[in-house]
Design brief:
alpha+beta; globular; Protein Transport Mog1p, Chain A; 53% helix; 20 helices; 12 strands; single chain; 3-stranded mixed sheet
């Protein structure tokens, strides 16, 4: 599935059969040059096809319901609403489908090994990356070039699959949002820079050493222009702008930050061989994508995998654990963004070591979130706790709702629940919407009984 390449469009709408034949012809013509610039030879024929928007909706709906499940999406929605990351009036499944309909222009399905482009009804349809490239104007992208670029991007996915087994790598591990996002960033970032490298080669502008050295500048430029898309100021970005920030990031981050990470990987060798090496030993966290040297350097910063203790007995009769997941550095930034701003949120999320949260529910009671974060140092944990205190205070039902003692912060709510956070060494534990009488015991057990294990390889 693809966010950041354009929809194929023609000035006169061809029949679907004609369009499919044209896509197949272009794919056959491009697979050689694309595989050459990417350095991955094709091992088998690549099937192609075309979806119209209705077919795309059916495919995306099936994929979401099959891979995520409505029940899982509902529980994720409840958890994110407790965090304040999902508005109560935003339906996650419907919003996700609407945004993907608007943004997806092509996709490669590892399950069927088929490449599909999305056939739009108007030549004016242009998806984010190509609109951004038009603004930056490095490639002079025109409507005729769009088909070639989208096919090049999807061909890279097909080549990745043939060499690196995408269905196994992209199996969407439950409760591993941070890891899944990092792996998607590797896959989409690689396809994005290979697409750009091929476009530059076609124009005689391909120079590998300079190309792989542009990672930081590329990321800054793309972030700047994407700010307009987030606000709905680019064409065909209304659903993207309406989506909550964490959902925007889930679609944008793999392409932009992933591309920056892959450029850094390629810079080590001056070629895509550096990217190939990362596929053999992939990134394990969004922290490693955001800070490439934490994965590519001599001493990688591996994430800590956390296993939370059972809290049903502490919470009392009727409570049960419904859902657990993690945020990772990326979504910790998102969590803090609206209260602290982008720069302060990034500083507070820096030094992330690992995290995990669980959603608990009981009949007639507000949902509860328990969340433990662990950090690279006591200082990093303290910086996050200080930022978390600002975030917590904004959740209070009255202006003076926040109360602090040494290493402990609490916010009281009008419904009799409390938010409680404690800082202990490298750990920061947080309970949201806890029954007031249980808050101290729940958060203390969360810190004392959570198990920690360094993750060095894919699970």
């Amino acid at each position: 599935m693809l966010l950041s390449v354009p929809a194929t469009a023609a000035t006169a709408a061809p029949t679907k059969a004609d369009h499919s034949a044209e896509v197949a012809r272009l794919a056959r013509a491009l697979v050689g040059p694309v595989s050459a610039v990417r350095g991955l030879r094709p091992k088998r024929k690549i099937a192609t096809g075309v979806y119209d928007p209705a077919e795309l909706l059916r495919f995306v709906t099936r994929a979401i319901d099959r891979d995520l499940g409505r029940g899982t999406l509902d529980l994720r929605s409840r958890a994110l609403r407790v965090f304040g990351m999902l508005p109560t009036d935003y339906g996650l499944r419907d919003g996700l489908l609407a945004m993907l309909q608007e943004q997806v222009a092509g996709l490669y399905d590892p399950k069927t090994r088929e490449l599909h482009l999305v056939r739009r009804s108007t030549a004016k349809t242009r998806a984010p990356l190509l609109r951004i490239l038009d603004k930056l104007n490095p490639l002079h992208v025109d409507l005729a070039a769009q088909t070639r670029m989208v096919i090049a991007h999807e061909l890279v996915h097909a080549l990745q699959d043939q060499h690196f087994h995408l269905a196994r790598m992209m199996r969407d591990l439950p409760g591993e949002t941070d890891l899944n996002t990092a792996l998607q960033a590797l896959v989409e970032g690689d396809a994005t820079i290979a697409m750009l490298a091929h476009a530059m080669q076609e124009r005689g502008q391909w120079e590998p050493q300079g190309f792989f050295a542009m990672g930081e500048v590329f990321g800054e430029m793309m972030d700047f222009v994407l700010g307009f898309a987030r606000m709905g100021l680019l064409p065909d970005s209304a659903e993207l702008a309406r989506a909550p920030r964490w959902l925007q990031e889930s679609l944008i981050f793999p392409y932009i930050a992933g591309a920056t990470f892959c450029l850094a990987a390629g810079e080590r060798t001056g070629s895509f061989a550096g990217v190939d090496a990362v596929f053999a030993d992939p990134p394990l966290s969004t922290e490693q994508i955001l800070h490439p040297q934490k994965r590519l350097g001599a001493a990688p910063d591996f994430p800590v995998h956390l296993t939370l203790p059972a809290l049903r007995r502490v919470l009392g009769k009727g409570w049960r654990s419904r859902f657990n997941d993690n945020l990772g550095e990326l979504y910790v930034r998102v969590l803090l963004h609206d209260r602290l701003g982008a720069e302060a949120a990034a500083r507070a999320a820096g030094g992330w070591g690992g995290d995990r949260y669980a959603l608990y529910s009981a009949a007639g009671m507000p949902d509860v979130i328990v969340w433990l974060t662990t950090w690279d140092s006591d200082q990093d944990a303290g910086e996050f706790a200080a930022a978390g205190a600002i975030w917590l205070a904004a959740r209070g039902s009255v202006a003076d709702a926040g109360r602090q003692t040494a290493g402990v912060w609490q916010v009281d709510h009008a419904d009799g629940t409390v938010d409680r956070m404690i800082h202990r060494g490298r750990d920061v534990a947080l309970g949201l919407q806890l029954p007031a009488s249980k808050a101290v015991a729940v958060v203390e057990r969360l810190v004392s009984k959570t198990r920690r294990k360094l993750r060095r390889k894919l699970p």
